[in-house]
Amino acid sequence: MKWLKTKTIVASTLVAMAMSMPAQGADPIYVGTSIPMSGGLAFFGQHARWGTEMAIDEANAAGGVLGRDLVVEFQDNRCNPSEGVKSVSQMLSEKKYVAILDGLCSSVVLAIMPLVKRAGVPLIVANGSASAIAEGSGVGGNEWTFKVNPADAGLARAMVGWLNKEGKANNIAVLAEDTDFGRGGADAFRMALQEIDLDLMSEDFYQQGTADFTAVFTKLRSQKPDSIALYTVGADFQNLIRQYFANDVGIPLTGRLISDHIPQEILDSGALDGTTTVQPYTPELDTEANTVFKADFKERYGELPNLLSFESYETTKVLIDAIKRAGSADPAKIRDALETTKMESILGTTIEFDDNHLAHNNAVIMRIIDGKVVVLGLSKT
Known about the structure:
The protein is 45% helix and 18% strand. The protein has 381 residues and is of the alpha/beta class.
């Protein structure tokens, strides 16, 4: 009997070990992602890739998922909707991917949403922020799209609420790129102001790649808004900030400024002091969970994470969690599991989806004070 009991314990241990390790020869579970890996937003794409790869590597190091390794394969969309459609159409035609991650740029995400709906494959959005993504998801008509990062509407509401609390929500002008991101941000900011019976002073949009912003800065100086809400990314952002500094515009900025892309010499000069911005994440956030995440990320890649790498990391973990709970690599079962997501975020909230398949994580409110980015607080989107 003692021999039988020992044999049973050993057998149970072996079964447990087998369940925690990828099965020998088992086919991997494939995930596809389309992000800008070249062009003006390649830096963003690189960080998005790092975030996803870090989450995948952690899962595989812990034994994989359902006894199988996870493999992520990347396609370049250059932040161009037609390239995004081409890359995702190719992945969907191969019929091996259980889900598609990201898209990154709002215009790309909106373009590929119909593709994943027809194919019956989940799309989990990590970084596209246009409010139209969530408006068209879940009860909005596309039951296959889920959005983990906050929408422009939620971020704008958090930003305007903070400014209003400080008495700084009056007389705001918008300057934005003429894209889904820029116009979506302007719309969201306007609607957030209207909720408190205020309105924008003015709206100006520019074409991506604009070389000279002198005319628009001259116009804004003559209007004398209390602040300018910026919605611009990539190389245009740095060019615009450099010209803002060179033209000595002197009007406080707000909106969606990516603080870690501000040229250091301009930050040090104090020219942007008083700038208040909202983002889904900042490495400056001082919490235990973020301290661990930052250290692990920097050890791997030699630099701190930014909002792209953070969102891609958490979004990939949301997908991994759904596959585990689905108990299957079947896309329809993964979609069903995504609907019941309840996963703790590094930002201290629980990630779960509303009827439009939109998660409502915390937003980080920051201000530039004495040439340094200071976290003012967290605000739910």
